[in-house]
Amino acid sequence: MNFLGVLENGLFALGQVLRLPVMLLLWVCVGLALYYTGRCLFEAVARQREHAGFDMNRWLQAGPVLDSAEARWASLPVAPRALLRDAQREYASGSLRDGGLENLVATHDERIRRSLLGPRALVKIAPSLGLLGTLIPMGSSLAALASGNLEAMAGQMVVAFTTTIIGLGAGTLAYGVATARQSWVNEAIREQRYLAERIAIGLEQR
User: Fold this and answer.
1) Count of alpha carbons within 13 Å of 100, Cβ hemisphere only?
2) CA-to-CA distance for 181 and 34, rounded, in angstroms?
3) How far apart are the C-alpha atoms of 23 and 56, rounded to whole Å?
């Protein structure tokens, strides 16, 4: 056997070694896609409830922002409520001025955007694993065809096409979740910044 043949056989063996971790990771992607989808549905219901009848302008007109009581800011949606709670704490400690409010808003914006990292990564990873899970069994399928074992070849081809479907399906679910959450993230960031502007105005008037 020449050196080129050794390299080719080695690559084929390496591809077969990768088969098990690829299949396991593909199952992980399926689980994550279902988890993100279920969590997105629950979040959609929760957002529908907390935004029902809520108007930020009407809430801001009810009185000062920083001095609002807990019973008042409890009616805020989750994201601006968390910002206001932290702003009140920073104001009590005297660190809200001189860039403190801007840093607080940036921190909350980054925290909200992190919810998109998982689904966005899954959009790319799941189809990639599905493609790997397709190509690896196809090598075994071609080897079985060369030896005349049509039954083994058919079994490997079934595995190959199934992994493609699973990878694309998981990626599609993740894309739907990422798209829905992107609109929620944009809305939450807009509400936070609007609230922060009113807090800044209140600070200037003190």
Assistant:
1) 15
2) 15
3) 48
- Split into its structural domains, the chain has a count of 1
Q: According to DSSP H, which parts of 52-149 are helical?
A: 56-60, 70-73, 78-93, 100-113, 117-146
pLDDT digits (tens, 9 = 90+) for 65-94: 777 777 777 788 888 888 888 888 887 777
- Domain membership flag for residue 161: yes
Provide the angle, in degrees to the nearest 10, between the axes of the packed helices 19-51 and 117-146: 150
User: Interior CA angle at 105 toward 104 and 110, to 5°?
Assistant: 100
CB 128 within 8 A of CB 176: no
Closest to 164 (Cα-Cα) out of 22, 18, 9, 54: 22
Domain coverage including residue 34: 19-204
Q: Look-up: residue for tokens 């029902």?
A: 52
Joined together, the tokens standing for residue 61 give 């007109």
pLDDT digits (tens, 9 = 90+) for 30-61: 999 999 999 999 988 888 888 777 778 888 78
Is 161 in contact with 134 (CB distance < 8 Å)?
yes
The reported pTM is 0.81
How far apart CA 206 and CA 202 sit, in angstroms, is: 7
Structural contact between residues 171 and 47, judged by C-beta atoms closer than 8 angstroms: no
